[in-house]
Task: inverse folding
């Protein structure tokens, strides 16, 4: 029997998990076992919203040591995380400055400066990446403008997963799928764009050659002295999630649903024309040289914040109560930049509704229903944009990630979009992480082979669309919201 043990370290913007996968290459059986899970949250440091990287590193090492104590020596380790955020190292390899989060307000107005000085069209032609105010391009500009005195000390800039690669192995790496999220990688050459780096105040010497998923970074040495290969998987968590989405053919779109919702399709070629720019579509890197043509949607961050502020722990009960609420009574534009990181999300949602002449959702169930209806309608809008861009309709939509556990939102998505929705797997980014490792080892042939294994090993549920007159009638009202409000991506 050929058995391979892979460890996936999957860190999202709100939670982290370490999973052990056991794969039998003879039977194709793939089994996941949770080793540990943690909460990932922002901390205030010197007036900035920062990531607690030391806590995350402790979580990673304690999880690996737990396996070590059980006598389990993994065949490989992979790490995936959220995108755009970075860590600076000095010339001795020590962390320099603060690990500021993309949700910090330091980039306010920077994207507008870039568009005024470089032009929106030029930036998009260079990168094919959508305009988000927290992209690394604008974070670096904000940092170098405010703190130029210690820039000479910088030796390297690493994105978050590559920082943890470095902490585990001592080796530097710049993985491609996450590098594309920065809006600093040239779409055509696949290299760092020196014009954009210069505008950001960064030096090309801070960055190394981007590597494709499957690259062997180095070894982590266990407490018992066992060397374990560390593989740079598709390190952007959405890239890993898409790798595990069991799509087949060209008529399927996918939605990675979690703190963020990311809707898109795979393409061998990027879509970076004028129409894509007008829609603010992004072309992020994927496995096997494919592009993830997609759009970011604020996602379940809205609900997470509401639940935190109202101390709601019974999410299933909240969803059941939300289902009983009137359809589309109150709507918001989920991508309005007022929702990036407000002081009070509940009040922000209520104020947004009142400001548009709609009732303020006063109960937790009404707030949840407002979020779900608004997301479903925004999914419809983005799906139509993607269809127009590629010139062909989609036949079904695959929803993967933690958000696919929400049956109400899955059904509302099917109803709003008018096509069947296939939900699952839940641990998509973890599974894509594992898939990259198995492909790198030769145990799995390619992405298509791995997706067949996903269908073989994990339960998927189909949601058939119901005719929804309420969504049809609410569509013009919702479109007016998205056209009038100041979106985070415009």
Result:
């Amino acid at each position: 029997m050929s058995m391979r043990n892979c460890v996936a370290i999957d860190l999202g913007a709100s939670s982290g998990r370490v999973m052990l996968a056991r794969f039998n290459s003879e039977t194709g059986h793939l089994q996941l076992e949770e080793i540990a899970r943690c909460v990932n949250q922002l901390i205030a440091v010197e007036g900035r919203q920062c990531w607690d990287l030391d806590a995350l590193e402790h979580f990673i090492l304690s999880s690996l040591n737990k396996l070590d104590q059980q006598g389990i020596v993994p065949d490989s380790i992979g790490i995936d995380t959220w995108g755009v955020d970075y860590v600076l190292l000095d010339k001795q390899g020590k962390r320099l400055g603060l690990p500021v989060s993309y949700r910090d307000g330091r980039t306010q107005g920077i994207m507008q400066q870039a568009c005024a000085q470089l032009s929106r069209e030029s930036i998009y032609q260079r990168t094919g990446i959508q305009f988000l105010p927290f992209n690394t391009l604008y974070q670096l500009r904000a940092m170098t403008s405010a703190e130029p005195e210690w820039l000479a000390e910088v030796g390297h800039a690493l994105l978050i997963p590559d920082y943890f690669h470095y902490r585990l192995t001592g080796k530097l790496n710049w993985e491609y799928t996450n590098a594309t999220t920065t809006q600093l990688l040239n779409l055509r050459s696949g290299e760092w764009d020196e014009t954009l780096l210069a505008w950001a105040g960064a030096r090309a010497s801070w960055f190394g050659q981007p590597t494709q998923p499957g690259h062997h970074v180095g070894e982590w040495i266990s407490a018992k002295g066992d060397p374990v290969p560390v593989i740079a998987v598709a390190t952007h968590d959405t890239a890993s999630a898409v790798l595990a989405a069991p799509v087949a053919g060209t008529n399927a779109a996918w939605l990675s649903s979690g703190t963020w919702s990311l809707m898109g399709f795979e393409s061998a070629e990027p879509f970076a024309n004028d129409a894509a720019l007008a829609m603010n579509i992004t072309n992020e890197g994927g496995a096997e040289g494919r592009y993830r043509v997609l759009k970011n949607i604020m996602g379940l961050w809205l609900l997470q914040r509401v639940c935190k502020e109202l101390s709601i722990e019974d999410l299933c009960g909240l969803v059941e109560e939300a289902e009983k609420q009137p359809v589309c009574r109150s709507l918001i534009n989920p991508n309005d930049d007022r929702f990036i990181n407000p002081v009070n999300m509940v009040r922000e949602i209520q104020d947004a509704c009142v400001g548009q002449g709609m009732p303020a959702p006063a109960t937790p169930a009404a707030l949840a229903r407002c979020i779900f209806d608004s997301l479903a309608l925004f999914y419809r809008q983005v799906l139509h944009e993607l269809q127009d861009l590629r010139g062909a309709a989609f036949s079904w939509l695959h929803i993967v990630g933690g958000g696919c556990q929400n049956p109400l939102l899955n059904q509302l998505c099917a109803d709003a979009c008018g096509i069947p929705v296939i939900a699952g797997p839940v641990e998509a980014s973890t599974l894509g992480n594992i898939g990259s490792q198995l492909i790198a080892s030769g145990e799995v042939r390619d992405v298509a082979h791995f997706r067949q294994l996903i269908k073989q090993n994990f339960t998927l549920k189909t949601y058939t669309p119901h005719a929804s007159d309420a969504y049809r009638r609410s569509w013009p009202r919702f479109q007016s919201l998205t056209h009038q409000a100041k979106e985070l991506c415009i």
User: Anything to note?
Assistant: The mean pLDDT is 95. The CA atoms of residues 121 and 274 lie 8 Å apart.
